[in-house]
Specification:
7 helices
C-alpha cells in the first residue's frame, strides 16, 4: 500500500476497535487520512490510538454504540463541530447474533442484529449526509458477505441484516449519482477475526488471512475514482 494516498482526507470508520474496522482505521491513518475511529469500547480505541501514534499518526476517538439511535442521530452534528466535511466512511460495525434454526430465533436477537448491521447504516447516512455532500469526492464503503445470498441454514438473522444493508446502500448509491458521493460495496472474504471465530469455532487461527489484507482493499476504495462498485 502506497503511503499518502489518502493525504488530508477525513475518514470515519465504525467498528474500529477490533477486526477489520481496526485494521482499516490503522491503514487509513498510515495512508495520510485524518481518521475518526468509532466503536463501543473506549479502552480498545485508546489502544489503537497508541499504536497509530507510535507510527507517527493519530486518531480522533469517538466512543459510540450503534444500538443507541439517539447517539447515532447526533453523530453528524457532533462531527461537524470539528470537521467541515467527511471524505470517506467505512461501516465495519457488525453483529453475528446466534446461528440457530429460524423457528427458534429469538426476536430480540434478530432485532439486535438488524439494528447493528443494517438499521444503523440508514441512521448514519441520515445523520452524515450533509458532511458527505460537502466533500469534493466522498467515498462510502459498506461490507457485503457471501452469507447474505447463500441460503444457508441457521444464518437467518445475519444474512437478513446483510441483505437489508445491501438494499439501503444500493438505494443511497442511486440517489447520489448526480453528486460527488460514491458508494462502494466490498465482500472482504473470510478473515481471522473474532466474528469469524464465533461463527466457525472449529477453524484454526491461521486458516484465513489477517484483516490487514482486506483493509488495504478498503483504502483503495476510499480513493477518489469515480467508478461504483454497487
Amino acid at each position: 500500500m502506497a503511503e499518502g494516498v489518502l493525504d488530508g482526507r477525513i475518514i470515519l470508520v465504525t467498528g474500529a476497535s477490533r477486526g477489520l474496522g481496526r485494521a482499516v482505521a490503522a491503514a487509513a491513518a498510515r495512508s495520510g487520512a485524518r481518521v475518526i475511529a468509532a466503536a463501543r469500547s473506549k479502552a480498545a480505541l485508546e489502544e489503537l490510538d497508541d499504536e497509530v501514534r507510535g507510527e507517527g499518526g493519530g486518531l480522533t476517538l469517538l466512543p459510540i454504540d450503534m444500538l443507541d439511535g439517539d447517539a447515532v442521530d447526533r453523530l453528524g452534528p457532533s462531527i461537524a463541530r470539528r470537521f467541515d466535511r467527511l471524505d470517506g466512511f467505512v461501516h465495519c460495525a457488525a453483529e453475528l447474533g446466534l446461528l440457530t434454526p429460524t423457528f427458534q430465533l429469538d426476536p430480540a436477537v434478530l432485532s439486535r442484529v438488524m439494528a447493528v448491521n443494517a438499521f444503523s447504516a440508514q441512521r448514519l447516512i441520515r445523520s452524515l449526509d450533509p458532511l458527505f455532500r460537502r466533500s469534493d469526492a466522498a467515498r462510502l464503503v459498506f461490507l457485503s458477505d457471501a452469507n447474505a445470498d447463500s441460503k444457508r441454514p441457521y444464518w437467518a438473522a445475519y444474512a437478513a441484516s446483510k441483505a437489508a444493508l445491501g438494499a439501503i446502500a444500493s438505494a443511497y448509491a442511486a440517489e447520489m449519482r448526480q453528486t460527488a458521493v460514491r458508494v462502494r460495496w466490498l465482500d472482504p472474504g473470510a478473515m481471522n477475526t473474532r466474528l469469524r471465530r464465533a461463527a466457525y469455532p472449529g477453524e484454526s487461527d491461521g486458516t484465513h488471512p489477517d484483516p490487514g489484507e482486506a483493509a488495504r482493499k478498503v483504502v483503495e476504495l476510499l480513493r477518489s475514482g469515480d467508478e461504483e462498485t454497487i
